[in-house]
Design goal:
It contains 11 helices and 13 strands. With 292 residues, the protein is α/β, with parallel strands linked by helices. The protein has 2 domains: 142 residues, 3-Layer(aba) Sandwich (Rossmann fold), CATH 3.40.50.720; 107 residues, Alpha-Beta Complex (UDP-galactose 4-epimerase, domain 1), CATH 3.90.25. The strands form 4 sheets. A 7-stranded parallel beta sheet has the order 3-2-1-4-5-6-11, with helices on both faces. It has a two-stranded parallel ribbon with strand order 7-10. Strands 8-13 form a two-stranded parallel sheet. Strand 1, helix 1 and strand 2 form a beta-alpha-beta unit. The longest helix has 19 residues. The protein is globular and about 55 Å long. The N and C termini lie far apart (41 Å). The structure holds NADP nicotinamide-adenine-dinucleotide phosphate. NADP nicotinamide-adenine-dinucleotide phosphate (NAP) binds next to helix 1.
Length: 292
């Protein structure tokens, strides 16, 4: 039995489809099973929440492999970014050790270091440290920015282009990414699970091109048929505006400052797409995936 967290997310959905097609017995730790869609009849369900570590224990019963994808880039009513990414992963590793799990697979992020300016990447660094220190055999995947047509990040950019004559960019938009399609990330994780692997414990998953945030936004807007000029908005102004929006709209806010700040921090690997290729996956360029 394989326990999958984050099965309703961008990569989780793509990975779950691959696992169930391959006939792998899967249990999903979810907050709301309805979000699994048609896959919910093909899997076991464990109700749980990253903010409720005791829920991990039941979910781990009889499990040999844990694939922990669930994470959050904004605070939730039950847990902060630090609790949901850092502490929850640490507690999940502990639960896996106690349950006798044989392999723990974790999705971190490129650029996750304990002194990063963003709360999310600092929390991921803590989580990664807990996984790497574990006695359970483990594999860490650290992706750059990933995306899929229709995902919330692309949709937000497209919506801004629908209503604004120019699309705002937080700061100078010069942070660098190697965007990778969520399907390619899922394929790489599936390959890492299926094969004996090369014994490595950490794979950096990056797309074939290094692009600035501005270049990414231009590709997305062109693909949506709405090319617009981009306007740089000074970071302190973005931070203040988004914090005001969060105060009034709370969880309904279209973007938080923590999310916007992530688009000012580079997420690149010096090896480019080599690690994905070592797993048999050749990541496609963003423009090609979006049909530009
Ligand atoms: N997106 C990127 O560019 C990127 C880059 C590097 C690393 N990552 C990391 O890769 C992993 C997967 O990201 P993603 O973009 O595929 O995810 P996503 O689409 O943002 O979805 C997040 C997943 O985590 C689950 N989740 C969130 N809060 C939860 C909670 N309190 N309890 C239980 N489950 C919870 C969500 O479940 P619900 O359906 O209940 O909301 C969903 O399945 C995450 O750890 C993310 O931090 C992402």
């Amino acid at each position: 039995m394989l326990l999958l967290t984050g099965a309703t997310g961008l990569v989780g959905r793509a990975l779950l489809r691959r696992l169930t097609t391959a006939g792998e017995p899967v249990r999903c730790l979810v907050r709301d099973p309805r979000r699994l869609g048609s896959e919910r009849v093909r899997v076991q369900i464990a109700l749980g929440d990253l903010a409720d570590p005791p829920s991990f224990r039941n979910a781990m019963r009889g499990v040999r492999t844990v694939v922990h994808l669930a994470g959050a880039i904004r605070d939730q009513p039950l847990g902060s970014i630090e609790e949901l990414n850092g502490i929850a992963t640490w507690r999940m590793v502990q639960a896996a050790e106690r349950a006798g799990v044989e392999h723990f697979v974790f999705t971190s992020a490129l650029g996750a270091v304990s002194h990063d300016r963003t709360r999310y990447l600092r929390a991921k660094a803590l989580a990664e440290r807990a996984v790497l220190a574990s006695d359970v055999r483990h594999t860490v995947f650290a992706p750059s920015l990933y995306y899929a047509p229709g995902d919330p990040f692309l949709t937000l950019l497209e919506r801004m282009a629908m209503v604004l004559p120019a699309v705002p960019v937080s700061g100078r938009g010069l942070a660098l990414y190697q965007p990778i399609w969520a399907e390619d990330v899922a394929e790489a994780i599936a390959a890492g699970l299926a094969g004996p692997g090369d014994g490595r414990r950490r794979y950096e998953l990056a797309g074939p091109q290094t692009l600035s945030y501005r270049q990414i936004a231009e590709i997305v807007l062109r693909a949506a048929g709405r090319p617009r000029p981009l306007v740089n908005v000074p970071t302190p102004l973005v931070s203040r505006a988004l914090r005001v929006l969060e105060t009034f709209m709370q969880s309904r806010t279209p973007a938080t400052w923590d999310e916007a700040e992530l688009l000012e921090v580079s997420m690149t690997s010096p090896h480019g797409s080599a690690d994905a290729e070592s797993l048999g996956v050749t990541p496609r360029a963003m423009a090609e995936v979006l049909g530009v």
